[in-house]
Amino acid sequence: MIWFMKEVMIMKQYLDLCQYVLEKGYKKADRTGIGTVSTFGYQMRFDLQKGFPILTTKKVNFASIVHELLWFIAGDTNIEYLVKNNVRIWNEWPYKKFMESKKYQNETLEEFVEKIKTDHQFALEFGDLGPVYGRQWRNFNGVDQLQKLIENLKNNPFSRRHILSAWNPAEIKNMALPPCHTLIQFYVSDDKKLSCQLYQRSADIFLGVPFNIASYALLTIMLAQICGYQLGEFIHTLGDAHIYSNHFSQINEQLSRKPKSLPILVINKNITNLFNFKFEDFKLEQYDPYPLIRGQVAV
């Protein structure tokens, strides 16, 4: 196993984002009807050599982050795998579509999820999200972007074309949710450190952003290992950065908590192919967050 050394670092960048949007953001109507406080254009930087960037001011489900990322990497777009691994973050979108079908018989979300888990044919019919992230990563109009990215990182490290795009205009209409994290660029420095910058067009600060930070940091760490690089930075650039009006109390609760030091990520150093990683190859050590804070997802 390989250890990523920890310094006493905290996720102050995230709390600074929360405070900035609360103070500088504008009230803005949105697609969901809930309403937000929003600002446009914000950037955070995380040094991946100084600890794994996961929130400590509330518990973030690391297992869900790993499973979702492996689901993306596999090119999967059906929630069946996620549901069977107790990952709930995508359930509301296919459930909303199911409610509009003739087969809907007033099933609750929980009953719908149980059907996805236990009935493969039902999952095939109602569990797919359309050509979302994993599909675009692995089959963007016939191009396996992820495979090409790996080849280019290994063979042409100083290229300026290390890009993954999830935004495919031709297929947006078929997606349950157009991608929020849309463009990912990787960069190899002259001292062989791998960095990643994510452009996120829409950023749900309470629910989505903590997952996104940890997920793309993890992807960067995995790619660094299989391509033979040291760790650089994860740079998170936000377009519409917003706090939903029903998340204000949760954000303020986090701001009242003193952040703790970051945990240590341990991954299996024997894995040399990105597509061979399994859930069991990852472990988070010394993660001691404050308790979970719940919030309702806006669909």
TrEMBL record:
InterPro entries assigned to the protein according to its UniProt record, in alphabetical order: Thymidate_synth/dCMP_Mease, Thymidate_synth/dCMP_Mease_dom, Thymidate_synth/dCMP_Mease_sf, Thymidylate_synthase, Thymidylate_synthase_AS
Binding site for (6R)-5,10-methylene-5,6,7,8-tetrahydrofolate: N61, D204, A298
Thymidylate synthase/dCMP hydroxymethylase domain ranges (all copies): 12-299
Pathway annotation from the record: Pyrimidine metabolism; dTTP biosynthesis
Compartment(s) of residence: Cytoplasm
Keyword set, alphabetical order: Cytoplasm, Methyltransferase, Nucleotide biosynthesis, Transferase
Main location as per UniProt: cytoplasm
The keyword Lipid biosynthesis appears for this protein: no
Superkingdom assignment: Bacteria
Active site, per annotation: C180 (nucleophile), C180
Pfam assignment, any one: Thymidylat_synt
Alphabetized HAMAP family for the sequence: Thymidy_synth_bact (MF_00008)
Role of this protein: Catalyzes the reductive methylation of 2'-deoxyuridine-5'-monophosphate (dUMP) to 2'-deoxythymidine-5'-monophosphate (dTMP) while utilizing 5,10-methylenetetrahydrofolate (mTHF) as the methyl donor and reductant in the reaction, yielding dihydrofolate (DHF) as a by-product. This enzymatic reaction provides an intracellular de novo source of dTMP, an essential precursor for DNA biosynthesis.
NCBIfam families found in the cross-reference section: PRK01827.1-2 (NF002496), PRK01827.1-3 (NF002497), thym_sym (TIGR03284)
Stated name of the protein: Thymidylate synthase
Chain's gene name: thyA
